[in-house]
Amino acid sequence: MKELKILAVVIFFTLVTYYGVEPYAHHQMHKKVDAQGNEIVYESQDFKYPDLKAVTVKGDAAAGKAMISACTGCHGIESQKMQAPMDASASAGAYGVNPPDLSNAGAVFDEKFLVNFIMNPTHTAMVEHKFKEGSGKTYPMPVVAPDPQTAANIVAYLKSIAPKELTPKEAFVAACGRCHADRYGKWTQLGDVPKTKPNITTHQDPEMLAFKMKVANYQDSLAKYMGKLPPDLSIMIRARSEEFMEHFIENPQSQLPGTAMPRVGVSKEGFEKVVAYLEETGDPSKPKRQAVGPWVLGFFFIFTLLAYLWKQAHWRDLH
Ligand code: HEC
Ligand code: HEC
After folding, report:
1. Residue 127 CA: which ligand 1 atom is closest?
2. Whose CA is nearest to atom 36 of ligand 1?
3. How would residue 295 be classed by pLDDT, with cut points 50, 70 and 90?
4. Which residue, 13, 101, 168, 308, has fewest beta-carbon neighbours within 10 Å?
């Protein structure tokens, strides 16, 4: 019995140490401070965007559809067989970045965000600081519909054509894919890395080379537009805590004041899908690891029990 008590005491202190020290250390190591050294405290807003104007009018999808050519002058809507007027490379040359295809916009972005974005893109995306008057820079997406009714109609149309459920990858592509590559997911800002075959005799792969050149050119325009090249997101989910990710994507300025990354306005489900994609590609063995966990614990439990019984059996005669 004495050994059991000792075991219980050891387990107790191990747990106390773990729960007491680990999250504390985590917090200390990931402390966020602003330029003045004050700690940044951020309250999660659950992707509700409370700073934006509430939508008080009801959108009419048919009226939105009639207006949609105001958007397809730049954006494609592939699911509706509407081609973007320029391909991604030419768009990047013109705007610095490829205007995203809007087929899935109604499913990945928050409705209130979209209505506000159409009425006032720079304010809604929190990039006004980059496009101040006199800076010589203008945001590439103009104010198409400054009144709430027209904006709400267009959003109602986008929602009416959006699929009910997006795959994690579709969500990532719609919300992040024009700016961020994901090497592990074989994603570039120009789409999936193509499957090519090198020439058997020369071992050259001109098709791949041409693709890489196009990606490099796109990234060049993007870096000029953004001020820096958005980082590859392959291992970001492991390098950053989930909490950071959530707060950063909900409100980039709250975590990295002055950052070039816009607030993209994903809905809560949209965010969860994006994270699922980043986990799938960045940490593909996680589900396996998690499935193994209970088995390992079970093994230790049974092993401990057997060892204890075995010891009891041996020492019985000696006591
Ligand atoms: C003159 C070209 C142009 C027109 C017209 C235009 N857009 Fe855009 N749009 C862009 C560009 C460029 C971007 C990407 C900007 C960036 O990421 O910095 C963009 C981004 C977007 C985004 C992504 C926002 C986000 O949060 O990531 C949505 C949604 C969008 N546009 C919807 C629309 C809708 C709806 C219309 C019509 C009412 C429209 N756009 C008209 C050029 C345009
Ligand atoms: C219009 C381009 C654009 C879009 C769209 C965009 N990002 Fe970014 N992102 C950037 C830029 C630029 C940076 C670099 C910011 C900096 O260092 O200030 C960045 C940085 C990041 C970082 C790194 C932050 C850090 O700790 O350094 C993460 C994580 C990130 N983005 C995630 C996302 C996710 C997830 C999405 C989609 C939901 C997304 N981004 C959409 C431009 C974009």
Report:
1. 18
2. 71
3. confident
4. 13
